[in-house]
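Entry: Light-independent protochlorophyllide reductase subunit B
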Amino acid sequence: MQLTVWTYEGPPHVGAMRIATAMEGVHYVLHAPQGDTYADLLFTMIERRDKRPPVTYTTFEARDLGSDTAALFQTTLREAYERFRPEAMLVGASCTAELIQDDPGGLAKAAGLPVPVIALELPSYQRKENWGAAETFYQLVRTLAAPPASADGSTAPERPARRRPLCNILGPTALGFRHRDDLAEIRTLLASLGVDVGVVAPLGASPADLARLGEADFNVVLYPEIAGVAARWLKRSFGQAFTTVVPIGVGATQEFIAEVRQLAGIDAETSLPETRLPWFSRSVDSSYLTGKRVFVFGDATHAIAAARMVTEEFGFTLVGLGTYSREFAREVRVVGEAHGLTALITDDYLEVEEAIAALQPELVLGTQMERHIAKRLGIGCAVISAPVHVQDYPARHSPQMGFEGANVLWDTFVHPLVMGLEEHLLGMFRDDFEFNDAARPSHLGAGERVEAVAPAAAQAEAATLEAAGWGEDAEAELRKIPFFVRGKARRNTERFAAERGLSRITVETLYDAKAHFGR
């Protein structure tokens, strides 16, 4: 066991909570001690939901371990059913309660409740949150989904004739990164293609809705980490094909549209929304961003999509790729190999920080953990994947998927780099009588300026430069170079000096290196 300050995923029962919270008419009874009830705050504080998750805890204490904790679970289960009257119930144990082996599934079966009770076996010490969400959704679908029975109960009747194809959308959950907005975007896109949506699950679905899953012609899988297992079961059981392209980015969205048309049997071309990303990618404004070194890390779905976007649609250079989704390590490794990289598969943020520091990218695309790492290293960063904090659940519509999602990601990827230009302009005017560091802001009137303390990142950078042999004049000259190319200039100069055996980097060394690499 490894102690850590941060973690990319919670235990699997948090994944089960995400499914229960996303659905209607489902209640989760969790066998857990008092300390394991913290997960409620993830939904009320971070996602800013206006109600608590539909979860009841047994909340046993240390003194209860000497008595009958199994009886406590059964009592809690019956009371939860009587109070909430759900259409279906989930039962399971937290990581701590798993150790006392009370068998919530067997106890729930013995209780004889008049609604379906799905027992969850979630190994807390081998698996994590996304796996727990996928397993919970799969068990719900497997238990509740069934093709409509015929009059004699032998076979399913033929589907009623209808003018438009019908699909289900699978994957959106509670506490999902931009799931609400992605769902709205994909609904609109499907409607423009002439495809109706039957069931969206688990977000907003009831047990009765899951029973209708078999009526659709095919399934749209937005998040394979959550819905991949259930979609494969539906294909085996009901013969429903499912989409394999995640529509993040212009190219992927176009491929998604082609896949949906094929599955739905749609031949006619339809007018589609436009995105400004292709225009930007061809514009002069984007030319100074070409070749920027980017490090990508997150869940597999968003990491793979971001890697494709930055290379194919922005012209950036991918220098690092990784994921904490071990169940999808193979897929991420394949993408990494296509770019000549060895993908980083880890759930240890310290390994990620070490990789970023070694690669010295100019932009980091990751989770809130990479945001903290990049800030500490003085690198621009944008959040593209869970885990995220409250600011990444915006009140505005801000999807990642579809053509509007491509517009949002354009802003997301470019803004950290463009802010470097603003910093450079401030640096250019630093010696101006009105804008120098000692001048008081003009809107505050006359007076002396309070001396600012150099940020830790600047102090760390100065120490690193000194250790690398940079002279004071050379360091001052380096800082005049725009932020967004300064890292490349520094690497080239240090490489130039090392190849020539120079122990001290001067202004002349800096300009000699510039001339050498500019040939």
